[in-house]
Every structure is written in C-alpha cells, then in structure tokens.
Write a structure and sequence with these properties.
Elements lengths: L14 H6 L7 H10 L2 E5 L4 E3 L7 E7 L2 E6 L5 E7 L4 E2 L12 E4 L3 E7 H10 L2 H25 L3 H18 L7 E3 L4 H8 L3 H13 L3 E2 L4 E4 L2 H8 L16
Antiparallel strand pairs: 1-8, 2-7, 3-6, 3-8, 4-5, 4-7, 9-11, 10-11
Length: 252
Amino acid sequence: MGLAAAAGTILEQHPFVTRLLQHVDLDPADLRSLEAIIDGELSIRRRGELIVDGDEFRKLCFVRDGYAVRYKLLRNGKRQILNVILPGDIVGVPGSFYERAIYSVSAITDIAMSACALDAYVQLCYRRPQFGLALSWIAIQEAATYAEHIIDVGRRTPIERLSHFLLELHARLRVVGRVEAKSFTLPFSQEVMADVLGMSVPHLNRMMQRLRSEKLIAGSERRVEFIDVGAMQALAHYQPYELVPIPPPARV
C-alpha cells in the first residue's frame, strides 16, 4: 500500500495512518478528508482516565504517542486488563459504539491522540468507503488479539502466556515502527503486565527471570531482546498470522 506526498498535514507520519496503509491505499485527498474531521489533539497525563465505564463517549481517538490500558473494574475492586493500547491504536472501540462505555481506558504514560466524533468518521466512510473497510480489518485484528488473551488466562501456562504477550507486543509495535528487529523497550510496568496476564507481580518477575536463564531473552528489566525467536514462538504457541488483503472493487 502507498501514500502520495502530503506534506503539511497534521496526520503526516501518524501511526494510525501507518496502520491504515497496511490495508488500503490513500492519496493526499484521502488524507485531507481524514484530517478535516479531526476536531482536536488531546493530551492526557499519566494515570488519567480517557474513558470511564458507564459514561457516554462518542469519539474515536487515534493514539499518536503513549500507552494506555482498556480494563474492567469489578465490584470487589479487582481489575482485569483486557488489552493494552499502543501508538496507532484507537481509543473508542468498542466504547463509542454503545450507548454507554462498557470498559474503562486509563493512560499508563502521558498520551497524545488525534480525536474526531464517531458520527464524523461514519460520514467519512460513506464518502470514502476505504476508511470503513480498513477499520473493519483493524477491528478483526483486535478481535483476534482478544481471543489470544482469553487463551492466555484460560489455558496457557504462566511462562507460555508471558512469552506470547512479549511476542505480541513486539509484533504490534513493529507495524508502527516503534521497535528494532529483535528487541524493544517494554512500555508497561510489571504491575500492568501482571494484570494483563492474570499473575502476581512476584510470579511475573520469576517468569521473566526464567526466560533470561533459559537464554530466550536478554536485556535489562524494561528492555527485551529476543535471543531465539523460533524457540519463543514454539514455547508460546505463537503463530504470526497475516490478514488477507482487502479485495479490490469489482469492475462493472
């Protein structure tokens, strides 16, 4: 997929546009149409709430920089993180598609996003269907990620689910150019990762040490370098699936 030069646009180099380009071609007019519906650039401080479960939220926010978590807080005070939000991801899916948000979203770091009204994005899709198609393909990717997280907490052992999560993070960040070929900096604390994976922090730390001792990863506490990617994938039952391309329109 490609994008003709569109110098001067606020979305130039935006990681969400990078993700769109994995699925559809965009020309400068397309990018200007997307830029026209952006009604602001939002900056949320670390630990700020982007969406609160039960509140009305009718925006799509495209993450430019920073990290967040989508989670459910139970009545007993326990938190289950459903997914992590990375640069290029969308805040507002699925919350904006319901009358009231069904999950909360909280910033883990300072986060910067480009925001638009959901209705404005829908109207853009009517005019330029490629934006709706690309969003569908992105939503399918996210659904597959959620499915893997269910398998993580339901059937994978702690060492398997940690290995799978590290490989998943690297793959997702690679799409938007935020990692090196076989290494990356963990954007999340062990506390956050433990909530994602359904472990205690001490147990997570032991699993990290085990991966290092078995020569599968190297690096410091927040730096991960894959030593043997094939062995990690085999351990995690990780399969890097590729989505089929969006079919071109039929010629009449």
